[in-house]
Amino acid sequence: MITTDLTPGSPCWLDLGAPDVRAAAAFYGAVLGWEYESMGEGEDMEGGMFRRDGKTVAGLGKLTEAGARSAWMIYFRVTDADATTQAVEKAGGTVRVAPMDLDDWGRMAQYSDPAGGQFAVWQPGSNTGVELVDEPGSLSWTELYTSDAAASKDFYGGVFGWQFSDMALPGGGGTYSLITPAGLPEERMQGGLMEVRKEDLALANGRPYWHPVFAVADCDAAVAKVTENGGSVQMGPEDAEGVGRLAVCLDPSNADFVVLTPAQS
3-class secondary structure for the chain? Predict the structure, then answer.
């Protein structure tokens, strides 16, 4: 489970790059009950924070990179962004945004893994990251779709020291690799990695991609809100044994995410 006791290698932040910030704020407000707090005015300053029950759950900003798709970016906590950058390059990854300070909030960097999957890191300063997780309307899991699970495990394991444990998917659906931060017990699993066919990665033009899983109280009700507000559903809602009821969704700009009502323990 993801917690706010953020250890190195654990997801600590996420933000969405959207072509229309106001429309994205309205969509996620309807689907996840988020409130949007803008941090600026005007086209060049569009961006801010999503909050749930007064706690920060994610960020939102204007998509400005030419040719980029609207997508969620997941940040993993590190103690030294510069050292992580060296580890990424040594493992065959690419630096998209070199380590940079964001006032006294912290230090961030963004990368691509060797196959093109994008991710980021956060070295905390005054801002340690999200304030609410594993509750309805907040991040509860992270997931990577990749066409080469072994290579992805080698890369991310080398960069973050992650531990992996494999489980067979029901119905002969392949193998799912569970991710746990270095040195922590499996109860602190934070995400998964799944090998899919390259043609199943069409959203990212064949490249691997990360997406967030958001906990919701009622998966079917959340899916209804997705479609009512201009989004679409790629898969589900369906029950996953031992996991809960989930659906893979796209927002109106085709940024992907999952909604999950966890199984009762």
Answer: CCCCCCCCCCEEEEEEEECCHHHHHHHHHHHHCCEEEECCCCHHHCEEEEEECCEEEEEEEECCCCCCCCEEEEEEECCCHHHHHHHHHHCCCEEEEEEEEECCCEEEEEEECCCCCEEEEEEECCCCCCCCECCCCEEEEEEEEECCHHHHHHHHHHHHCCEEEEEECHHHCCEEEEEECCCCCHHHCCEEEEECCHHHHHHHCCCCEEEEEEECCCHHHHHHHHHHCCCEEEEEEEEECCCEEEEEEECCCCCEEEEEEECCC
- Here the tokens at position 2 are 């993801």
81-90 and 149-160 helices, crossing angle to 10°: 150
| Cα 210 to Cα 142: distance, rounded to the nearest angstrom | 7
Amino acid at 79: T
- pTM value? 0.95
Count of C-beta atoms within a 10 Å radius of residue 214 = 26
Average pLDDT over the chain reads 92
CA distance linking residue 77 with residue 127, whole number of Å? 11
Question: How far apart (Å, rounded) are the C-alpha atoms in residues 99 and 123?
Answer: 9
What CA–CA distance (Å, rounded) separates 8 from 78? Answer: 5
Which CA distances in Å does 249 have to 15, 26, 253, 257?
Answer: 17, 16, 11, 5
- The pLDDT tens digits of the residues spanning 4-24 come to 677 899 999 999 999 999 999
Integer-rounded Cα Rg, in Å, for the chain is: 17
In 10 A of CB 159, how many CB atoms? 24
Query: Do the beta carbons of residue 26 and residue 220 sit within 8 Å?
Result: no
